[in-house]
Batch of 2 targets.
Target 1
Amino acid sequence: MTAATAGGTAEKFARVTARFGTHPCDVRSYAVPTVNRGRSTGVPVARIGADMSFATRGFSGRRREADTRLPPGQTLVQDWPVLSAGPTPQVDTADWELTLQDETGTDHRWSWDELLALGVEDVTVDIHCVTHWTRLDMAWRGVSLDKLFEDVESEHEFVMAHSYGGYTANLPLEDLLDGKAWIATEADGAPLTPEHGGPARLLVPHLYFWKSAKWIRGLTMMPDNDAGFWEQYGYHLYGDPWKEERYW
Amino acid sequence: MSAPPLTSVGRSRPRPAWHVATVVETRRETPTAARLTLEVPTWPGSEAGSHVDVRLTAPDGYQASRSYSIVSSTPEAQVVLAVDEQPDGEVSPFLVHEMRPGDQLELHGPLGAFFVWRPGESDRPVQLVAGGSGVVPLYAMAAAHGTADDDAPFRLLYSVRTPADVFFADELAALTGPAFSLDLVYTREAPDGWPDAVGRLTRETLAARTLPAARQPRVYVCGSTGFVETVARWLQELGHPATAIHTERFGGL
């Protein structure tokens, strides 16, 4: 399936069942229900939350670099975990197309070469995943969304990002402009691999990384802040890592 | 426009909240994993396959949080974590080796509603494909299926290093019956007299030991990134539509 084969309407995105995306879950251990033995521990449960914690006996932690660039609840990693919800779409740049649809239904389209011709920038940013990992000073290359929106007039304040494979993510338009977001084509000095969202993914580093939709194929202006894929499954509508906006 | 309608949207499910968990019991699950029984008096229950954030706090306020899949399909005051130790990990070695009855930690959840199985949602058969400790959420779906009034046939293909590494061996054996079948693939060492070759899962074995695409199974795959990438690709080559394949992976931290 390629974007070029359909009519460029919003409905073409809607036909794709959402199954893919940057997966929020790091699966390394599991819980199994057991029979309630009826025991009571008298544990105080009031006011438990981000503002109140207790020490777990014996836990000191290992990585305690006091890096002020690490948002709360995040752990620094050097590698790049792969997380998604379904098979990885394989999209050839020859077939790739990006469509930006404004509220009049007008499509602005770019082929791979046309996108790159807009001008590719090098950016170094920190990446924060909702699954608690953070990478600092990650090198990316991509095209600023300011370039894409240069000729787009819109009264709508929100954008739905659409991916090959059907994944969606909702974002406020202002979070995509003024040098805050890119269509990224390279990371760590190499073209983006399919499992990391290649050939191109959205890059919005100031929000949790699920907002940086992999396999980006389209941006649709919308009047309301409708929920995208993971947002419909309980993830936060906005996703500010500094406020720990992980879930609603 | 909005995103495609999803079957789970608008479902009432427990809202995520912070909970205090108290360790009731720990025991060895495999040579690298421990099973922790936690008492969580406020736990609202969760769907099989959803997850939870675990937070540990040091006396100086330092905190470490990790997301872990939960398997719990009914409201219970107890959950059991089966934690596989990551050799370079910060949280999992602590959970595996240091937790003792009476210790407390914080949970935030239940979280997630995508990699889940719900009784009665579909009468299509379900194929589960597990790599290593990725079996656990899939086992949980099978266990939930085993206690539910749901006739959809279940089949689990479980790739595991050695017999000792099998999670929930007794429970899986007990589930096996007309509605659930288990296929084991040993990658390093098999029991004496095991009829099949020992080695990594192949496309041929996957094809032979899973429900064919013609039966239109819903497929859940969980394991390492390499395992999931490979299996998901093979499944598509074998005719399963991408929309039928749900995946969950180990993270890289």
Target 2
Amino acid sequence: MNSLTSMTHNRLMERGWMARVMVKMAELSKVILLPFIGIAIFLSVWTVTANSIETSLGQFPGPVAVVTQFENLYQEHVNEREKAQAFFERQETRNAARLAKDPSYEAKIRGYTGKETFWDQIVTSLVTVMSGFILAAVIAIPLGIWMGLSRSLQAAINPIIQIFKPVSPLAWLPLVTMVVSAVYVSPDPIVSKSFINSMLTVTLCSVWPMIINTAIGVSSIDSDLINVSKVLRLSAITHVQKIVLPASIPMIFTGMRLSLGVAWMVLIAAEMLAQNPGLGKFVWDEFQNGSSDSLARIMAAVVVIGFIGFLLDRGILALQRWVSWDQ
Amino acid sequence: MGNFHQWGINMTWATSITQQMTKPLILGITIGTSLCIASANAEIGYPEKEELKFGFIKLTDMAPIAVAYEKGYFEEEGLYVTIEAQANWKVLLDGVIDGRLDGAHMLAGQPIAATIGYGTQAHIITPFSMDLNGNAITVSNDVWAKMKPNIAKQADGKPVHPITADSLKPVVEEFNAAGKPFNMGMVFPVSTHNYELRYWLAAGGIHPGFYAPHKGDTSGQIDAQALLSVTPPPQMPSTLEAGTIYGYCVGEPWNQQAVFKGIGVPVVTDYEIWKNNPEKVFGITAQFAEKYPNTTIRLTRALIRAAKWLDDNNNANRPEAVKILSQPNYVGADYDVIANSMTGTFEYEKGDKRAVPDFNVFFRHNATYPYYSDAIWYLTQMRRWGQIEQDQSDDWYKDVAAKVYRPDLYAKAAQSLIDDKLIPASAFPDFSTESGFKAPQTHFIDNLVYDGNQPNAYINSFTIGLKQGDKL
């Protein structure tokens, strides 16, 4: 009897363990298997459709062509770095030769004059988008807080925001370009005009969602909190620091996520149109080249643009989790 | 836009300009002196500005710049050059004017137009002419099908060349009768392509339209039977494919690309419209040349060497050049597409590949020497189509040419290359006797003769176009 009970017990235990494994498996399949199936289906649909689209530049690139181009782009990057190395060596010899002849010469090492590789352009784009976004945040968050605190300011500024928010970067760009060329004049500029152009365009387009969300976040703070602040007679600055900011962080971050998404989209368009260095220019240049590899290279850039956009969004999300202690 | 009354004021600007303007009159003396200077101090000083940025448009005739970079000619002059593709000719010109670019691959008409104030006013000069020929006119497959019955056939069934616009005329008339505009693309209002397309159309009796800048009309479509508009070179094939235009005139590789893509047929090359016509120039601002004289001579030296390399040993280096140009940061089109025109052949209708050894000339026939007569030809066409709205004297044409085209700088650079034994003197014109005017040229598709010394007489010889005394 005893042994029988223990056997049943064991079996029950086993069954419980099995069930747990099943649940785990189901969870795992949701996280790994389903996305995997999704991607597999997408890739096969892509391959089949690509095979049936014939453009004047040859067949539309399938996944294999794109992977090949990733390899090419990487190889080009490596080759360009080798060329850069040789360039610097030649430059040093030349400088030394000139110094021997002309001792008063102030030899200096100039930057590499060759082309920007795909990886350089990714870095340029990231730097530009982050600069534009940070500038937008520096303007938008204080302004949003102020608007959230003062109904009258909100009433005054709101129409302006509502009008400018839907404006496409393509409309801003010519204005920005002309103003920057007129205003930003310096014989030895620290950063190039093209960088300022794309950065400001990004700022102009990504500032609005941040202002709106911050203002909404601030104006919808729990009235109990405000009363506490009133009772304690907190100064304006302490009120913002201790009450307003912590309470509106979630909304501010929602605004920042929206803005960063906008910023990244805008940047690609701005680079494309204004011929500013970066991924957008890469796409445009390849389109202009019209070689038989162009479409696959553009598709490679599309994948990279999407992936970076995804990473940026995750990055902000992680930052939000880290900043807001209540979640 | 352009205002030629400004010219009268410009004339009195500064004495330095006035001095330059008298140059053609005392040309022999000027070149004589510059020669003396060149041989007296054959050693050219170090460049005043070492880091330079040059712009270009994705066309095969930017090759001298790419070659000078890749072959290290710029570096040998102590110049560290960055080369940057530009979106269109307007962006490129503005870049040179506002100093974002130090120099650029330009349409021959651009420095001339900028200097006389048609479009953006700026004093741009050229010490170096980049190439001869290199353009073609392409029409869409449909238009070609309609033109073909009007063209005589050779024994082998292929069309007799050169194809004149006479065969296009009935097609244009059919469009006009049906009330449909016959749209064509060219790359810029003062581009070689605009003038070549107009020349070809007008020689076949099709009116390409007048400009009237004094009335604010810069569309160039007054009285036009064929409506010409601007499209950037690399976008020509896709614009044709989209059906927005029925034909275009552009440089390579964009005609060969139409053949390659199967969307159009090149019907005539500019070599057939005007044999060995001057094409692009290297443009810098007058201030740049004044501020950085050594840099100017040195960059000219590098470009001359690159151009010579491109033509050396009967085009033996062309395949290597094509490989350089097919890199995505230069022209970026497929090797085969670029090679089609760069290696001495030209494919018209698919399969109709003919030898055109001089389709792209970079150095031979003194291609790099900036002839005054070349500048004057462009000015005559600007007057013919109304971009220059009023009559000008023959001397005016020569003065403008001397202000923009600077064979003195070229001679100095060339002489130093001769002294350094890098290039033999026989490769250049004889600078002691060269007047800067080519002998009267006869090889035009309509058999008219062009004498650069008599611009007004030349203008009067056209059937279609403004003549002396005409005003819109």
